[in-house]
Amino acid sequence: MPLEPLVCARTATRVSSVLNRDVKHFGKQHLFDGSAETCWNSDQGTSQWVTLDFPRPVKVSQLHIQFQGGFSSQLCTLEGCRTGEELVKISELYPQDSHAMQISFQVEETVLDKLKITFGSSTDFFGRVVVYHLGVLGERL
């Protein structure tokens, strides 16, 4: 079965922070807008994250991500759960410090309603992370 994008208009998205609280220019909506001109830019801090609450259960298979070089995460921890359960670690990914789209992250297929991606070990001295594109692919159940 072909993989499909799992994030839709009804997916509730939260982020750890937004640079200077400037949601208009750097907010979470830019993670999925498909524009090469916009991005989510976190504020400074040691651990940044994104959570996705899907409107119905999904089986996540792949993660596609495009950072701004110099503002990448060297370690991404994926956690997930079903509604009403505690988050459980699914896997760790090790992205490159690059502006290129990184699409090779296969995720251990897990059925979940909520996904949390934690960006640890930022390449930026202040801990900021800049993401131009985030794609979560898999199957809607």
TrEMBL record:
Compartments, as annotated in UniProt: Nucleus
Alphabetized Gene3D superfamilies for the sequence: Galactose-binding domain-like (2.60.120.260)
Family annotation (Pfam families): F5_F8_type_C_2
UniProt entry tagged with the keyword Nucleus: yes
Keywords: Nucleus
A GO CC annotation given for this chain: nucleus
Main location: nucleus
InterPro entries in the record: Galactose-bd-like_sf
Annotated family: Belongs to the NR2C2AP family.
Protein name from the UniProt record: Nuclear receptor 2C2-associated protein
The species this protein was found in: Melanocharis versteri
